[in-house]
Amino acid sequence: MAPFLAYEDKGAKLSTPLPLVLIHGHPFDHTMWKPQVTAFSPTRRVIAPDLRGYGASPVVDGVTPLSTFAEDIAALLDELHVEHFVLGGLSMGGQIVMECYAQFPHRIRGLILADTFASSETPAGKKSRNEMADRLLVEGMRGYADEVLHKMVAPYADPTVAAHVHGMMTATPPPGAAAALRGRAERPDYRELLTRVRVPSLVVVGEDDEYTPVPDAKSMAEALPDATLQVIPRAAHMPNLERPGEFNEALARFLGQVDGPA
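The line above is the sequence of Alpha/beta fold hydrolase; the predicted structure tokens follow.
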């Protein structure tokens, strides 16, 4: 049976290091992980899917809760015969990573939580996400992309990085983005879950991230029993693209730690 999600799958299928699975944020697609796929696929299997409603994956209207995204990831990895892996995600992708740990912790050997946060949505946040979902369905993605580009990446970021991020946002189907926004508005609180994580974790954040500031990352790292915090200088919400060298160095150190005996 063909997998539901579109995905990129690079690297040796039977490599000794654990596979690395990377979950993109909103409103992006799997190509946001290009620097990491390029850097790590020569030595390990790297899998980067397009979430439902994004990229080349099917668009589903309505509401897509984080639990559904996690179920999709599990189904894809079942199809690819990947039992154990290191799982990472950025922003919404990080929240999906937390939901995956809630659903199938026995399969996950390490967590990467980048520019994300664990708390549930506030009443004001719920209202804002639902209003934005309505707006995207009426107006499309371009106006939103123009408005938030330099919160996603810092104003001083490389113009080619900004162009890539803007292109991902404008290419996202509005119904998929709206369904995800409505789902995130109803997300659970993962803070207690973090205290029960039993695998090593890497928490990464851009120094100038306005969406998920450094104090949020510090709180997550303090809650996790075995966590490393890495603050990436001169980066905003997408340090993996803005400062790929520094991001990849932190990720390589972490993977070296996780690749030891389970």
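Note on the example: The radius of gyration is 17 Å. The chain has a mean pLDDT of 96.
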